[in-house]
Amino acid sequence: MRKEKQDARRKLIEEAAYEILSERGYRSSSMLLIAKKAKASNETLYRWYGSKQGLFTALVEENARSVNEGLEVCLSKNKDPIETLSLFGPALLQLVTSPRAIALNRAAAAEADNHELGTTLGDAIAKAGKETIAPLIERVFSAAADSGHWPAHQVKDASETYLSLLIGDTQIRRAIGVQDPLTDEQCTKRAEKALKLTAQLFKPGRAKA
């Protein structure tokens, strides 16, 4: 199968998986239902993903890939770090609060007592999020420290504070259904505020409490 055709088929399968997940929840989802929805063979799904857990783990990884790759490109090209944060802050907030991300988080939470799935899906979310994106954000903050935006010894604290201010409890509120999806404007304003407050808290020469 040509790569373009395979990529298109994968996209249809993944869209079908999200639809089935939203309609039925994780436990009632199945590879067969997803295959039928995507008009693909059950054998294809098992060949490509190995299992239902493998399919949903792939969805987690794909969901975070664009932000990860964008950050990597900016770091490799030595883009202005503050400009990078201004660009990717809203993108990251959109990612972690998107309907797809929330559906996956709900599935992992619902299956937390299922040691096989809870560990597989929960670990995939943690790896794609905190364990992958957070170190990249810290590298951007390190580059900003080199430019004098905050002391080098406070890079880790500054990046963690920024992520806390950026995301806060928004993802949890989305997951429990008490907050609507954020608009592009809301994401941009929240990201700008998170960066501004972080810069104020960690600006060079500011006395620590």
Quick recap of the structure?
The protein is mostly helical. Helix content is 76%, strand content 0%. Helix 1 (3-24) packs across helix 2 and helix 4 (52-76) packs antiparallel against helix 5.
- First-residue to last-residue Cα separation: 61 Å
Q: Give the amount of beta strand, in percent.
A: under 5%
Determine Rg (CA atoms, Å): 19 Å
Number of helices: 11
**CATH fold name of the largest domain, please?**
Tetracycline Repressor, domain 2
The general outline is: elongated
Major sheet attributes: none
* Count of all domains: 2
Give the H and E element order: HHHHHHHHHHH
Please, what is the CATH homologous superfamily of the largest domain?
Tetracycline Repressor, domain 2
- Which residues sit in consecutive blocks of at least 5 with pLDDT less than 50? none
Number of strands: 0
Instruction: Provide the residue-averaged pLDDT.
Output: 88
Strand-pairing-aware structural class: mainly alpha
Tell me the helix content. Answer: over 70%
CATH top level class name of the largest domain:
Mainly Alpha
CATH architecture of the largest domain: Orthogonal Bundle
Describe the overall structure.
With about 210 residues, the chain is mostly helical. The chain has two domains: about 1-50, Arc Repressor Mutant, subunit A; about 50-200, Tetracycline Repressor, domain 2, CATH 1.10.357.10. About 75% of the residues lie in helices and about 0% in strands. It has eleven helices and no strands. The protein has helices spanning about 5-25, 30-40, 40-50, 50-75, 80-95, 100-110, 115-130, 135-145, 155-165, 170-175, 185-200. It is elongated, with a radius of gyration of 19 Å. The model has no long low-confidence stretch (mean pLDDT about 90).
